[in-house]
What does this fold into?
Amino acid sequence: MRIELDIKLGFKNVMIRPKRSTLKSRSNVSLERTFKFMHAPKNWSGIPVMAANMDTTGTFEMARALSSHKMFTAIHKHYTIEEWATFLESINDDLYEYIAVSTGTSSTDWDKLNTIINKFPKLRFICIDVANGYSEHFVHFVKQTREQYPDKVIIAGNVVTGEMVEELLLAGADIVKVGIGPGSVCTTRLKTGVGFPQLSAIIECADAAHGLGGQIISDGGCKSPGDVAKAFGGGADFVMLGGMFSGHNESGGELIEVDGEQFKKFYGMSSETAMEKYAGGVAEYRASEGKTVQVPYRGPVADTVQDILGGVRSACTYVGAKKLKELTKRTTFIRVQEQLNEMFEGD
Ligand code: 5GP
It folds into this structure.
């Protein structure tokens, strides 16, 4: 047994220290970024906030809504080929820039991925997603995908440590997804005791990825626009959101009414709810458990988008970052024992 004694930090353990700034208003801040990838040719430009590839957030409807803000959606892996065909017939070329096709690593997943890409070769992004990105089988799957698709942008995850980020990038991933256990409907830490506080994971993984010319996605754990700003401040190139995009018109899942109030179901991709829905297919996808919750119905996602982007823009003005790209180098985190004043909590 070994123990690392330095404390690893989550979003709730820090705040961003304000700095002198010449920016007059948050409207002066640009959140658009352009990335050059480690393997795939061609750049990508957009606002690097993503909807998670859960069947409640990674929906075609979400992709339509988010792409109009130049934001990205990792489409969940449970759509049929026919559903893909209907969706893709109805979109213009721009939208291809803002969606990824997701896959697990079973042989059925591999066959489905190949069928989708062969049928719809304009798809540019592949998201290879497993609960535990530390297995040799996973690294092999990333290599195989890179060999088969030299031109696609490959996202692979999830991991939380620098050496595994390097291994996945060298195996052929362009972007590594970071996060084990921080998710709003994830019970991995409870069930296994395994995990890594998200902000420290971002800092370590971003350093490893940027050293090789790769990127990372911070996946999970953001509860507010401030957390999204902290994730970018810590070095995340992209931030992926599940819970924050749940409960909207564009989110999948049933609308339920309880005592006259409307809710939407939101659940982990390895929760019982998901298992029941995709019986047989999910056990392999997410090894650890997830939970099911009811979130208040929140209408169109556009309002939430405004809220998130407004918050991140404002964070940029507090530290004098004209562009999102500058946020990390202008960020100094302070460790704190308090966050919000809860005097009127619940009012
Ligand atoms: P959130 O933004 O809701 O905090 O986190 C979203 C992320 O949680 C997803 O992108 C995914 O990585 C993770 N996740 C989704 N479902 C499950 C699950 O059932 N179990 C675990 N361990 N993680 C999940």
In short: The mean pLDDT is 95. The first helix runs from residue 60 to 67.
